[in-house]
Specification:
The chain is α/β, with parallel strands linked by helices. The protein is built from 13 helices and 18 strands. The protein binds NADP nicotinamide-adenine-dinucleotide phosphate.
């Protein structure tokens, strides 16, 4: 068997410690599959004295993670620190510039700087791999880049944030409101002390921008992802959705629109109503799932653990095995995205207004005559056709009334126009909440 592939680990938190455990536990199997042993040689984190549940004695300690790639005893650096910039990015750049391969689980860094890093990696003829950055343990990058490589991907979408899915499922099961369930999720360790990145949809948007780039051969464009989180969803919305035959899930959705002759990229993270009979309606708790629709493969569903030390380490080590195999064969690891950086298209964002769909609109309104007529008049004037409408008193909020309606299929621009007509109306006690209904 060949010489070991020598790994440096930058970051020894949840995922870093998981990678050590996996590489040690499955060492023999990994060596057989990779064609050579995978050996950790150096490690780095902030605090050398911290207990991490793994024995670091066999590995050299490096104080400055940024220069790990320059060590002579390292072939690949695995960046598991996190953050779009800062030491993670400095480490990634130094590693590639030193002619070493980089593996990362850092979706924020790839969403913001993936193009630059991929360009650098191509120039240096080294691998840049980030399977763990999207949907943790689910091999969705590999699935799209390799398994579905022969297909034109028509649409890619999914449940990309386990924390949000855990909260929505728990609200569904218990009938409790968002704030209450979030507090429980934080106590159980399913949500960060500062949950903004997750619940505002930013983490899902990072992952969606990576999936979109791979699926559509587009330059990664995180800045254009329209993003809305789950913080405004009420227990009453969940109950209304259920009465109508839906569950609520935070969905990241990307496709392309060439209606005006130019290919444009649509990317949006938003809570959706998902019909009971759609596979994503049954994805509960902290699980992630991605659906990709290929023009020959049909609908592909990737589902599994989107986070956690074991699943995420599994994705990281799969990347290492790929690198070991390709180096073994004297070849390069292939482009970081589905095509070389120079062939990725810079796609302008597609406007959402042209999109056809059905939507759920929820209003909290003052309990007085004429309010319902005001809402329905705005819908009529904007050309929005109403399929169903429910009105309910909310005694918990001092007599406020909840009005929920579902539209027939129509352009999203009509719904936006109806909301514009209602803007500033003293009848509305809160801005309306709009959720798209996931179509077939
Ligand atoms: N956790 C998951 O389930 C999961 C899933 C998918 C992807 N990811 C991604 O994987 C990466 C790591 O996540 P994690 O959950 O393992 O994070 P974590 O538990 O917070 O660990 C981060 C590690 O980075 C080290 N670190 C932080 N700042 C540093 C600095 N300035 N210089 C040197 N070391 C520094 C920390 O050192 P100390 O330990 O000494 O403080 C710690 O070992 C992130 O990009 C995350 O988005 C995580």
């Amino acid at each position: 068997m060949s010489e070991p592939l020598r790994i440096a680990l930058a970051g020894l938190g949840t995922v870093g410690a998981g990678v050590i455990r996996l590489v040690e536990t499955n060492a023999a199997l990994i060596a057989r599959r990779a064609g050579r042993p995978i050996k950790i040689t150096a490690v780095s984190a902030r605090d050398r004295s911290k207990q991490r549940g793994v024995d670091l004695a066999p590995y050299a300690w490096e104080d400055d993670m940024v220069i790990m790639g320059e060590r002579a005893d390292v072939d690949v650096v695995v960046e598991l620190v996190g953050g779009s910039d800062g030491p993670a990015l400095a480490c990634a750049r130094t590693t590639i510039e030193a002619g070493k391969a980089l593996v990362t689980a850092n979706k924020a860094m790839i969403a913001h700087h993936g193009l630059e890093l991929a360009r650098k990696a191509e120039a240096a003829h080294v691998a840049l791999k980030f399977e763990a950055a999207v949907a943790g343990g689910i091999p969705v990058i590999k699935g799209l880049r390799e398994g579905a490589a022969a297909n034109e991907i028509e649409r890619v979408y999914g449940i990309l944030n386990g924390t949000c899915n855990f909260i929505l499922s728990a609200m569904e099961d218990s009938g409790r409101d968002f704030a209450d369930v979030l507090a429980e999720a934080q106590a159980k360790g399913y949500a960060e002390a500062d949950p903004a990145f997750d619940i505002e949809g930013i983490d899902a948007a990072h992952k969606l921008s990576i999936l979109a780039a791979i699926s559509f051969g587009a330059e990664i464009d995180f800045a254009s992802v329209e993003t809305a989180g789950i913080g405004r969803i009420l227990a009453a919305d969940i109950a209304q959705a259920e009465a109508l035959g839906y569950v609520i899930r935070l969905i990241g959705m990307a496709d392309t629109d060439s209606s005006d002759g130019t290919i444009r990229l649509f990317q949006r993270v938003q809570p959706h109503l998902v019909p009971f009979d759609h596979p994503l309606a049954h994805v509960d708790g902290a699980t992630n799932a991605v659906v990709a629709e290929g023009n020959f493969s049909g609908r592909l569903l990737f589902q599994g653990a989107g986070a956690g030390d074991g699943p995420t380490a599994s994705a990281v080590v799969a990347d290492l095995i790929d690198i070991a195999r390709s180096m073994e064969n004297g070849g390069e690891a292939g482009p970081a995205f589905s095509v070389p950086v120079g062939e990725l298209e810079a796609m302008a964002p597609a406007p959402s207004g042209n999109r056809l769909g059905r939507a759920y609109l929820r209003f909290l309104v003052a309990d007085r005559p004429g309010v319902l007529a005001e809402i329905t008049a705005a819908m009529r004037d904007a050309g929005v056709s109403i399929e169903s409408l429910i009105q309910k008193g909310r005694h918990d909020t001092g007599g406020e009334v909840l009005v929920a309606l579902v539209t027939h299929e129509g352009p999203e621009s009509a719904v936006s126009e109806a909301l514009r007509l209602l803007e500033g109306s003293p009848s509305l006690t809160q801005p309306p909440l709009v959720m798209q209904i996931l179509g077939e």
